[in-house]
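2024-03-11 09:14:02 DEBUG pipeline.ingest accepted 1 chain
2024-03-11 09:14:02 DEBUG pipeline.ingest length=427
2024-03-11 09:14:03 DEBUG pipeline.predict start
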Amino acid sequence: MTQFGRTFRLVCDEPAVPVVEGLLRAQGFDFGPEPFYAFARRLIHEPFPLGESLAARFGLIYIQDRSSMLPPLALDPPAGADVLDMCSAPGSKTSLLSRLVGPRGFVFGSEPSADRLGTLRANLRRTGSVNTATAKAMAQDLPFADGAWGRIQLDPPCSGWGTVDKNPKVMEVWSGSKTAPLVSLQKTLLERAAAMLRPRGTVLYSTCTTNIEENEAQVAWALETLDLELTPLAEPEGFVFEPPHMPGMDGVLRVAEDSDGQGFFLAKFVKRGGESATGGEGAQKRDLPGNRLNLARMVGGDLPDLTRLPPGEVYDFGGKAFFLHQKALDLVPGGLRWQGFPLGKVAGKGDRAKFTPAPLARILLPEDPSRAVCDVLDADDTDILERLFTGQSVPFGQGRGSVGLYYRGLPLGWLARKGGRLLWSAK
């Protein structure tokens, strides 16, 4: 296996790219572009762990193996699309899908493990993926109606043989007959994905293993058993690919061992059948357990820029305000417990109710700090940001309420004010 540089992607819009790159370079990082995705970068110089950089801590970049970026890019959902991500944690692909579909698009992710679900939600919160919703559920048990989704991403549990460069013992842990339960689970998940897919919809199947039983053999099984057909994938620039290890697999992608990045396998299926604008019987509606909020009428609710939120509603669940994307409200069945994007905290009731934005709810900050009605700290260098992240407070003057934090005009989040000082309170 060849050695390759660490890769990451920028989590920002095109106009903010120079600012995010400038923040990285201000801390001594150097990097270059990747040819397969305009927002992907390859590290050239790493003066200290990239995960401890200000850009990473503020969620302006996401550290991700270059091969791991391929499945969402291969699924290629258009802006405004709805995507089901069946096996979401830790959120690398989910958050990339969120960027691809844009604010009016929607991504739903599921994860059965409570710990991994916590990681998924933390990563989506950090990357500002406000157009997502998540649930603690086994993907094969998701209660969506047949034909409910037009696009599904399925990156199921696998043996991980393609990660041997980082996990030297993976071949030993998942050898021989030990992979049999994984192969069986993958079939179950493929079958469920095919059922939830509407006619002419697409499912992107991927693994980070080189094991033929989990790759080409699964494709052959799906083509024989399910109402699916292969659609060829173009080879992204900057990778080396091997020929498929079984005949009749034209268009699948297998990242070669001498390519930069982890070993990965991708296959894109289309469900047979006629064109269908909608599928299934729709979501079974129910009353949500929380209380609907009108932030603009709450104390402190006049500070955020609510116009930046996509269509949807804000609900109070136990003192926490969550944004619920309109497409989540339309698509998610009533019998499934799920969570939207956290916006902040709610204290009190009625006319005395007070809203405090969460530190990472930068979606509520105006893109132009001069248009903010809240107090604003706009830093031109990294010194103030570094002090905030080490737990120090910075002087700001007297006042009340949260303060918007910007770096050279780029929204970063919200600071808490204690007397005449400001604190960064995100964990």
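2024-03-11 09:14:41 DEBUG pipeline.report The chain has ten helices and 23 strands.
2024-03-11 09:14:41 DEBUG pipeline.predict end
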